[in-house]
Every structure is written in C-alpha cells, then in structure tokens.
Write a structure and sequence with these properties.
The chain has 22 helices and 15 strands. By secondary structure, it is of the alpha+beta class. α10 runs antiparallel to α12. The protein is rod-shaped, with a radius of gyration of 60 Å.
Length: about 675
C-alpha cells in the first residue's frame, strides 16, 4: 500500500471558497505522484488507463494507481466508482490472460517433453529434462524423481534437480515409508505443506534425515504409472511452507505420465535391442557352428585321404594344424605331459593342460603318444572332437605301420635266419628275397652281434627289453637296407658297409643308436668285413661267430655298452677270428713296409727284424747289418713314415714283431698296400 492514506489529502485543501483542486505535486500520494502519465484517468472513459496497463503487462499493484490518483485529485464519486469497476474488470482480464499464458507455457513444456520422448536416445537425459521443466513451471526449489526396485521391494532416487544434500540424493524409501513411499504404495498423489508435521505417512530416521539435510518443507508427489502398476514417483518441493494449487498438481501429474511413457519406451527399446542382440548372437553362433561343421567335414575328408594314400602321423598333425588354426604336434608318450596324457586316456577326450590341449593316442591300454595342440587355449567343442578324431586316426596309422613293420621285420629276420642256418638254400631264391627287401647280398657287409647290458631278475621285464632291442635293431636294419633277427638272447644284424666305413665305426654307431632307442646300454661286436655272402653257404654263420667272440671279449674287458670289431684287438683278433686270417693281420700291420720293399728293392723288413733282434739299438743293428749307423737311422725313419709315429710304442712293437715272424714263417706275401 502507499505510505500516505488518500484521506491525507483533506488536510492540505485550500481555504473555503477556493477551488477544490489540490496541487499536483503536493496533494498526490507518492504512488500516484510517481505513476506514469499513461496511468492517469483520461476524460474519455474509466477503462482507458486499465487497458493501457493490460497492454503493457503491468503488475497487479499498478491497477490501484488510477483510482488513488482520482481520489487524490478530488474527482466526483461517480468517477471514482467507475474507475473501481474498471479496475476489477481489468484485474479479472489480467488474471485470465495470466492463466492462459501459464497454460500455454505448460502446454509448451509438455509438448517439448513429448518431443524429447519421441526422439528418445538417452533415458537419463529425458528424465532430467522432465524434472527440470517441472521445477521451472511449478517454481519450486527442488524437483526429483524416484523409481521402484521390484527386486528389493523399495523405491530409490533416480534424478534430482536443485538438490544440494548428498544423503538426500541417495535415499531409498520402503513401500509406505515417507511421502514418496505412500504415493508409490497407494498410486495416488499426496501433498503436504509441512512435511515434518504431517502424520499421514510413516516417518523414518533415514528419510527424515535426508529431507532435513535438504531443508524441504512443502512437498507434492504424483505417481508414475504404467497401466495399473506404479513404477515411481515425481516430486516437487519447497524449502518453505506452501500450498500447491490443483492446477499445479495436475501439471505435475502430466509430467509424471510423460516420464512413465519415457521409461516404458526406454524399456521397450532396451528389450528390442536385447532381442536384436540375441538374434545377432544367435546368427553368429549359427554361422560359427556352420563354419565349425565345415571345418570338421574338411578335416574328416583330409584324414580319410591321408589314410587312403598311406600318410604318416606328422601328415595328420599338419592337416589338423591347418584346420584348427594352431600348431598340432605328435609327441611320443614319454615326452608328453604325464598327467594330461593319463587324464585324456581315462576320459576318452582331449583335455586342457595350461595353454595347450592334449589328446591321447592309444590302442587299448597301450599309450602310443599324444597329439598336442599349442597356441589355442580356448577350443570349441566341435574342434575338440576334431582333435580327438585326429588322435584316433593317428593311433590307427601307428598300429597299421607297426603291423607292416612287424611283418617286414619277420620277413627280414627269416631271411637272415636262412643265411645263418639253412646252408642248403638256393642262392638264387635268397638273392630274390633280399632284393624285395632292398638288401644287396653281393655288397660288402659286417655281421654284428648286439646284446643288452644290465639284465634284471624279472623274466618278463627281461623279455620285454629283448623285444625292444629286436624292434630297434629291425628298424635300424630296415633304414640301412640290412637284415636283423633275434638270436642267442640278443640280436644279430647284417649291415652293408659304405665306402670309407669300417667294421669298427659301424659297430660303435650301432651300439650308440640302439642304446638310445631302448634307453639301456647295448654292447655290439662286429665281424671283419665280408663280401659275396652267397658264394659260400657258411660265410654269414662264420662271421656271426666272430662277432659273438668279439662281443664276449668286449664284455670281459669291461667295455659293456661299447662297440668294436675283431680288427681292433690286433694279434688278439687272430684268436677271435674264426678262420685265423693271418694274411690279413700281416697286411694290416706291416703291409706298407712289405709293399715298399717290393717296389723299391729296399731292405726295410730286414732292418726292422734286425732292429728288434738287437733290442731296438741302432748301434748294434748297424753291426748286425754291416752298414753305417746313419743308414740304419734313415731306414727306421722311412719305416716310421710308413707305419705311423707310434710304431715303437709297446703295443705296436708287439704286433709288428708278431707280424714279422708270421710273415717269415708263413712265407705269405701280402697284397701290395696303398702308399
């Protein structure tokens, strides 16, 4: 109201008889004095100033100014009454205009919210927009939205606008607790102008603490419903006491309906996306299954082709590696992971071991090895079955190869047995049988006798060890175009000598290779080289007897696990040799000296004989030969170049003296030795 009452204008009137018009600046109330000219009454009608106020949207208190001004100017009572009526009518019009503007703003906000809902992309963004517009249109300090949690049976804060208290923003309300719990439970809007004095709902310490932290007093809540189900509550609240009008509650309910529709749309979109994702995943699974089945069919065809064309285990591993996009290796049983191998055999399936997969290759209770897939820690069940099928094919190939090898071993053993025992066999038939086995009986061979060392008291274990030795010897003979057979508790081999090879070198290599194969020491004795095996029926048998004597000598000398030939024992070889090859011994020992004398007409042999007779004294030797001592020295130097620097070692001198005596006694002239 103006500071000066209109009646104060009577005290400042002029004296009697003077005109009753106050001074413009002195008699007007302050509100009228400062009012714009457009607010002054116009002589053309009482409505004019109010129309002008309506046109410029003046505040409600401005509509009192024309009436106050008329009274201050002392206008007739009829004029003042007309202005009062015009004022009331103008205020009614102003109120109607304001209501229309408010409804227009509300409708615009609802339209914008519906537009946001139509283009829903982010549910949280839409809900935030709803809460912000509700707060703005209702003019409240805070607006917020809670959603029901069916799993926990309560409701929780989802979006807040204008909130400053963290505890309030994290509130959870049980059904029936607090104003929001009551709305969520009854599906009806509730209003309170003073929250803490309202006893219609259940107060709890946690809810009241959150509301107190936020400083809220007046609260209105409306339900968010989908059909008959309440899914949450939309709130507007002030930090002072306030009475919410019916229109405001209805507006908040409209926003709640839009929020519920947004949530329902988002849920439908989520379900649609989930269904689409499920369909895409199902399609991916179908495509993946199809690819896996194609791979399984491909590997089946490849394995079948490998079996038909006689492929090996490594061919199988290579084919499976390509199909499974990994590295597949065949591993012998001792080298495979024992735990994984045993587990795979027991379960009948491939098992994971670290980052690898192991599939046992077995025949009955016998473990033959394993297929190990590396670099593929995650294996599809169909691919796992492919690996298992490959292991099965590998076992079949190994069994087939073993059967073929055993058959070939038997054939090779039977041929060698016939060469050793059946001396009346037709040489032509023997040669044909050897040719079918890729063995050349006309080439130079050595006969080898092999035996395991470190025997055991267990007869079964010893028999198994002998079988392993025979299998290893048979494999070695097959790869060397030779023959092998089990005999006399050991194994006998007939192996060809390559150019530049010796019986000693062959015996040592054979001992080493057989020992590695059976994981036990193997002693091997070899005969001297023999050729033209079919010219004499007892050639192979005689050579075998010599190899056995050499084998026994090695064992007697403590050289178990080694290999050697009769020629390695010097003159002792004469005792081991079945035919006492004197000429061969003389040739190996002093053949170069004999040949030199024959070519040059020298007397190196006579000098050697005199040298040993004179106790290896050059001075006495020159007297024996009646030559100068320098001549003796020159001749001995020549002998050293022919026989080697160690010819005067004790072992060599013994053999050289024996060879000189045999040469002198036998009268046999050795064949010319190579210089």
């Amino acid at each position: 109201m103006p500071r000066d009452h209109p009646q104060s204008a009577e005290h400042s009137a002029p004296a009697a008889g003077a005109p009753a018009r106050p001074r413009p600046d002195a008699a007007r109330p302050d509100a009228a004095r400062h009012a714009p000219d457009a607010a002054r009454p116009a002589p053309d009608g009482a409505e004019a100033p109010f129309l002008e106020l309506l046109a410029r949207g003046a505040p409600a208190e401005a509509y009192e100014q024309p009436v106050l001004l008329a009274r201050a100017e002392g206008l007739p009572a009829e004029r003042v009454a007309a202005l009062e009526r015009a004022k009331l009518l103008a205020l009614r019009v102003r109120s109607e205009i304001e209501g229309r503007r408010r409804r227009e703003a509300e409708l615009s906000a609802l339209f914008e919210t519906a537009h946001d809902l139509a283009g829903l992309r982010d549910l949280d963004a839409v809900l935030r927009a709803i809460v912000q517009r509700a707060r703005s249109l209702l003019g409240t300090d805070v607006a917020y939205l809670s959603l029901n949690d069916p799993a926990r049976g309560d409701t929780y804060m989802r979006v807040t606008e204008g909130s400053v208290a963290a505890r309030f923003q994290q509130l959870r309300l049980g059904m029936g607790e607090g104003l929001g719990g009551l709305v969520a439970q009854t599906a009806r809007p509730y209003v309170t102008d003073d929250y803490f004095r309202d006893g219609r709902f259940q107060h709890t310490r946690s809810i009241d603490s959150g509301v107190r932290d936020e400083g809220l007093v007046a609260i209105v809540g409306v339900p968010l419903t989908l059909g008959d189900h309440v899914i949450g509550v939309l709130f507007a609240a002030d930090r002072r006491s306030r009475v919410f009008e019916r229109e405001q509650i209805a507006l908040l309910g409209s926003f709640a309906a839009l929020a519920a529709a947004a949530i329902d749309t988002a849920n439908l979109l989520a379900e649609t996306r989930s269904a689409l994702a499920g369909l895409e995943r199902a399609n991916e699974i179908i495509q993946d299954r199809s690819a896996v089945i194609e791979r399984a069919s491909d590997v089946h065809d490849r394995l079948a082709e490998l079996v038909l064309r006689g492929g090996g285990v490594h061919d199988v591993a290579a084919a499976v590696s390509e199909v499974l996009d990994g590295t597949v290796e065949f591993t012998e049983a001792p080298a495979a992971p024992a735990e994984a191998l045993e587990s795979s055999r027991a379960e009948g399936h491939a098992v994971r071991h670290g980052g690898d997969w192991t599939a046992a290759v077995a025949a009955g209770d016998e473990l033959l090895g394993a297929l190990v897939l590396r670099g593929h820690p995650e294996l599809d069940p169909v691919d796992q079955r492919t690996l298992e099928r490959a292991a099965m094919v590998t076992s079949l190939l190994l069994l087939a190869r073993r059967s073929a090898a055993e058959a070939e071993q038997r054939v090779r053993g039977e041929l060698l047995d016939d060469l050793l025992d059946a001396r009346d066999r037709d040489p032509r038939l023997l040669r044909e049988r050897a040719t079918r086995l890729s063995a050349d009986l006309d080439a130079t061979h050595a006969v080898l006798a092999a035996r395991l060392e470190g025997g055991t008291a267990d007869a079964d274990q010893e028999a198994d060890a002998r079988r392993r030795l025979w299998a290893a010897a048979s494999h070695l003979a097959a790869t060397r175009q030779g023959l092998a057979a089990a005999r006399d508790g050991g194994t006998v081999l007939l192996l060809p000598l390559t150019p530049g090879d010796t019986a000693t070198g062959l015996a040592r290599r054979t001992a080493r290779e057989l020992g590695t194969a059976v994981h036990e020491p193997v002693t091997v004795g070899a005969s001297a080289p023999v050729g033209q095996l079919l010219d004499r029926p007892d050639t192979v048998a005689t050579a075998y007897a010599e190899a056995r004597r050499c084998l026994d000598t090695l064992r007697l000398l403590g050289r178990s696990g080694d290999g050697s030939a009769a020629e390695d024992f010097g003159f002792l070889g004469l005792l081991l040799a079945g035919e006492r090859d004197i000429a061969g011994f003389v040739d190996r020992t002093i053949g170069r000296v004999v040949a030199y004398d024959a070519r040059r007409g020298t007397e190196l042999l006579r000098t050697l004989d005199a040298y040993f007779t004179c106790g290896m004294s050059p001075a006495r030797t020159k007297d024996e030969l009646h030559v100068h001592v320098n001549t003796v020295a020159q001749r001995l130097d020549r002998v050293g170049r022919l026989l080697g620097d160690d010819w005067q070692s004790p072992a060599r001198t013994l053999e050289i003296q024996l060879a000189l005596r045999l040469h002198r006694l036998s009268g046999i002239t050795p064949p010319p030795a190579q210089p």
